[in-house]
Amino acid sequence: VITRHLVPFGSIEELQAQNEKLLTTVRELGDKNERMERVQYDAKLRAAHAELKKMRDKQKLQQEKVAEIVRQRDLYRALLSSVNESALSKYSLDAAGNVVLEGAAAGAGAQGGEGAPGDAGAEAASSPGDRAAGGGRLALQLDEVKADFASYRKEKE
Q1: pLDDT in tens, 1-16
Q2: Cα dist from 51 to 40, 47, 56, 70, 104, whole Å
Q3: Exposed, middle or buried by CB within 10 Å (0-12, 13-18, 19+), for 71?
Q4: CA 156 to CA 145: how far, in whole Å?
Q5: In degrees rounded to 5, what are phi and psi of residue 50?
Q6: Residue 134 pLDDT more than 60?
Q7: Rg of the chain over CA atoms, in angstroms?
Q8: Which terminal Cβ of the chain has fewer Cβ within 10 Å, N or C?
Q9: Does 118 score more than 50 pLDDT?
């Protein structure tokens, strides 16, 4: 099209007319090219914005997960600390250096104690009766926890 109609000329007037046609064609092609580039640029920009939004959402979700894990860690840390404190507070040393349950320390001293001094590996009172009393207390505590849990389950239903 360009070589047949827009290149040959016979006079200066025809050359000027063809030059005007060529300028018009160049402007039209330039405008068309700019529009196509703008459409492509806008599409790429929209895709980049969508990707950025997706990444921000993922980041927010991960931050929420991390915050939840930190709260859970702190809860477990506090729970462990309270369990350790309460477990350690239940035991003491009697006059002979034996490890005894807090409530059983007075009973063991009255009965003379059966453990050797420095026998720190013993976790319960010296006498079998004191051990049974400690086990009975644990059984009562277990029953109490089970009852609390049962009432909790009923409340949830």
Answers
A1: 456 665 666 788 888 8
A2: 16, 6, 9, 28, 68
A3: exposed
A4: 16
A5: -65, -40
A6: no
A7: 44
A8: C
A9: no
